[in-house]
Design brief:
Blueprint lengths: L9 H54 L7 E5 L3 E6 L2 E6 L21 E5 L7 H4 L9 E3 L24 E7 L19 E11 L9 E5 L3 E6 L4 E6 L18 E6 L2 E6 L3 H7 L1 E10 L2 E10 L5
Antiparallel strand pairs: 1-2, 2-9, 3-8, 4-7, 5-8, 6-7, 9-10, 10-11, 12-13, 13-14
């Protein structure tokens, strides 16, 4: 009977160690760099996605901003603050001779106190059309050519006061009666359209170059803070004559982080250029684990009021 124990010989162990060493070396030379490169690509892709989302969100708010309401504060190495007042909706106000517009109840009086007028057509934003009226949640702006909405106050300003109630109803082509907004209306009229009733008489001091009335709520500010490596959106605060800065967020605002990992950010224009030229160029750099990406975005403003 053979009672010898079985095991590995020294030669077999040496061969096994050599083979494992070769495999480990191959893994280190070829596989690890490939894995690291793949992880770097994933980090860069995540940074690009985050940066693009942030820039698109800023651009969207800038594009729908009330004409001449964009204000920019930029300090190199610190960051920027971009404030604007997004428009909720808008329309063309009635003047005498426009689509059967006639009479004090239908035509907007500019330069004198007025309590009601029609627009040519209907508001479409569900936030506005689905609201319960009368309401002080909305404000109207007409003829703001230089950003004076930020200092507007009283009954002789480009914007209605926050205390003025606004009622929106549907009328028959500027006449009496109601129906589906935009549908065919009675004889002698065109279509059903919206009628605006103000709780207190208001004097809009100047006309709009395109006869436009804008519906607004509250401002929005984006602050890029390089020191904190963040881009934050502030909303839900009152309009103020004092513009936010990179180090001074708007008072009473709700903050929402847009993106982190911000290593640098710039904006191309100061406030007078933005309001005169209607153009903003944004640059945002993000960094993570040795990877850095820089994205640029150009946004056109509609400054015709």
């Amino acid at each position: 009977m053979n009672t010898r124990s079985r095991g590995f010989t020294l030669i077999e162990l040496v061969i096994t160690i050599v083979v494992l060493s070769i495999i480990a070396t191959a893994f280190g030379l070829f596989i690890v760099p490939a894995v690291n490169a793949n992880q770097a690509v994933e980090r860069r892709a995540a940074l690009v996605d985050s940066g693009e989302i942030a820039l698109r969100r800023m651009a969207r708010d800038i594009r729908i901003a009330l004409p001449n309401s964009v204000r920019v504060s930029y300090t190199a190495g610190t960051g920027f603050a971009i404030e604007m007042i997004p428009t909720l909706d808008g329309g063309r106000y009635c003047l005498t001779g426009d689509a059967n517009c006639a009479g004090a109840a239908q035509v907007l009086s500019l330069g004198s106190s007025d309590t009601d007028f029609d627009i040519l057509g209907c508001f479409r934003n569900a936030t506005l059309t689905g609201a319960t009226f009368p309401s002080t949640a909305f404000r109207l702006v007409i003829g703001d050519a230089n950003g004076s909405v930020y200092s507007a106050s009283g009954t002789n300003a480009v914007a209605t006061p926050t205390t003025t109630t606004i009622t929106v109803s549907t009328v028959d082509g500027g006449g009496s009666g109601s129906g589906a907004c935009g549908a065919s209306s009675g004889v002698g009229n065109t279509t059903y359209r919206h009628h605006i009733q103000l709780g207190t008489g208001h004097t809009f001091p100047s006309a709009s170059s395109r006869r436009r009335v804008f519906v607004i709520q509250t401002p929005v500010t984006y602050i890029c803070n390089i020191g904190a490596a963040t881009l934050t959106r502030y909303y839900g605060y009152a309009i103020s004559a004092t513009a936010p800065t990179p180090s001074s967020p708007p008072v009473g605002a709700t903050a929402a982080l847009v993106t982190d990992k911000v290593s640098d950010c710039t904006v191309s224009s100061l406030t007078p250029d933005v309001q005169a030229k209607g153009y903003v160029k944004l640059s945002l750099s993000l960094a993570s684990a040795g990877e850095t990406v820089q994205l640029n975005h150009e946004t056109q403003l509609d400054n015709s009021q």
